Hints:
- The structure holds 2 protein chains of 2 kinds.
- Chain A is an alpha+beta fold.
- Helix content of chain A is about 55%, strand content about 15%.
- In chain A, strand 8 and strand 9 form a beta hairpin.
- Chain A is rod-shaped, with a radius of gyration of 37 Å.
- Chain B has a single domain, classed as Rossmann fold (3-Layer(aba) Sandwich).
- A 6-stranded mixed sheet of chain B has the order 6-7-8-3-9-10.
- The interface between A and B is large, with 35 and 40 residues.
Amino acid sequence: MSAARRRRSRLRITDSLGESWLEVTRRPGRAIMTGLGVALSAAAIVTTLTLAATIRFQVSDQFDARRATQVELRTRTDGAGSQGAQVFPPPPQAVARVEGLSGVEGVAVIRETFEDQRVAINQVADPTAASPRMRVYGLNAAGFDALEARVTGPGWDQWHDDTAQRVAVLSRATAAAIGAGDIAVGDRLFIAGLGFTVSGILEEAPRLPALTNGLLVPISTVALFDLDTDRDRLVVVTAPGAARQVAAVLSRAVTPNSPDTWTAYAPEDESTLRRTVDDQLQALSLGLGAAVLVLGVVSIGNATLTSVMQRIHEIGLRRALGARPRHIAAHILLDAAVIGTIGGIIGATLGLTATLAVTATQGWVPVIDPRIPVATIAGGILAGVVAGVYPARVGSRLQPTEALRRE
Amino acid sequence: MSSPSETVVWCRGVARTYGGEVPVEALAPASFSIVRGEQVVVCGPSGSGKSTLLNLLGLLDAPSVGSYELLGEDTSALGETDRAGLRAEAIGFVFQSFHLLAGRSSVENVATGLLYRGVGRRRRVTRAREVLDRVGLADRADTEVSRLSGGERQRVAIARALVHDPELLLADEPTGNLDSETSRRVLGLLDELNAEGYTQIIVTHNETIAARSPRRLDLLDGRLTDSAAPS
């Protein structure tokens, strides 16, 4: 082995980093301006990713869990649905089949009047008198539990359903609307001139809030009125996650021989909704981030190449002092990487600040994955390295004599 | 001629021709040797091939033909990696325009001379201060180089060339950017270093400087007119 091989020039990585740090800190303004492209890109990425996580949390938080466990079955309104009026309400054994489906927790059979009906309290109905009008809903006895409706008073049971008893349940808001804010169980009221006994006060109906704006009567009793059959429906409450599976078999469970009579409306799956939101936000994030990142890389690359040209004598000097081409390439790559790092740090800080500002303004809980700023800074380093490849190639290929001679 | 063990530079028919449609012979075949401790001046007008010869001797360029042995090692067969290793180990450069790193102090500039030898930062700085003291700039060690005079800058450049204790010191027009008084001091420093045993090759177009040296090689139109063949 020759003496020269024994004396191969060496550059420690710490020394190379130190040289880059000296170079960058010597002109901090230039380093910051050069890293601005990466900083903006990093800020855009951090902001969109952290805001995406925050919004996803909001969606999840505000997502109506009840709707996710609720399937509606309506008669079809096209030709196949012409039989709907004949099959509604489904017979008790059909409802029992639905209740027996795996994942079903309750079934509400609902009908409603075509028009709002005149309602009067404790008096014989006078068709000529001005009185408020209310929508009347027919509901099966089991529907109260299925809809998680809270009723003060007995309400009604299956017997009332079977025998079309004239009993009614109404909310206090409805009572107030008809001028009977102090109404109580046992009071009489008149719907379209027909007398009904108040059998319960509807305190809330979270699964079908519209019920609190009307009157409820047994499902068979509502047939006394002119019904909007297009709005006949079964509301089937399911266990979490079972709604779509139940919807798939619901029609056949009600009318095994003519499942086409029905259309089942399953809620948008929560995970699907979340995935949709994720996809859209991430597409926005990636698109915006990528566009700015390209600008950042070009910016650093351009500035680094300019710097190489400005420091051409320095490159010649370093070669004269024993630097190998790879050492020159390492210096240039590290310079660019340091600038990329600065850009990444500034960008991550700006991005997090923007996210915190937006969430504070909106009153949201910020959801920040600590990996995002870390990955962003790493991305800044990578962007710097990528940007430095071409200038490093140019700089390392300069012949020392040419570099020292060039004006 | 000295014995091979004392020979630092030994050129045999070294020439450099630059390619292109019309090849240009920048240096015609030249043969000479320089022994340890010599101070040799290469003198010639602009375009005579002085810088070409210096680049070849400094391993910054390779001869088109001929053989160049540095410290007994035939450099013709060396790749760039090994040539860089020899430059870092055995050669010190002093340039006319100093080539100091702006924005850095004297000691940082001098320490750069050890950067590519894998020497730790603390040792680099310690050694750089020693050499700065040797060239009379101990009190300017921490001064940023842009605040130094021309003579001080050249002394910093000389200190950088000496920091790794090279076998061969190459100075390219070391006083070219200095006034006469400063030039005299710098040349005095180079003489002192030669007296301490540093082998020197000084390139100049200045006859006065050339006349001071015990040995001179004259170059004219790429031809070495006063060469001495190795024994």
